[in-house]
Amino acid sequence: xxxxxxxxxxxxxxxxxxxxxxxxxxxxxxxxxxxxxxxxxxxxxxxxxxxxxxxxxxxxxxxxxxxxxxxxxxxxxxxxxxxxxxxxxxxxxxxxxxxxxxxxxxxxxx
Length: 110
Fold this sequence. Notes:
The chain has one domain. It has a two-stranded parallel ribbon with strand order 1-2. The protein contains 4 helices and 2 strands, in the order αββααα. 46% of the residues lie in helices and 7% in strands.
């Protein structure tokens, strides 16, 4: 769930969670839209299920594209002043990026 939290903090929309079908999802994420797939007894996705899931995934991605961006991040829904973080360049300096972001946030609040 850590990755989902990072995604929700970084981007307001476009999140599509996927998981193996579970009896129950953790409370913090049980209400989120989630595509689920089945595993067999050996913890493998059977071919038939992979085909079904591939179709469901394609349908969901098409629907997301057609309806446009909807804010699906609880962070952006609950904290209106929260801003998306610009993606880091692979060669970027992380401490420098963090300093620039903190500086921008400090001056925006003033």
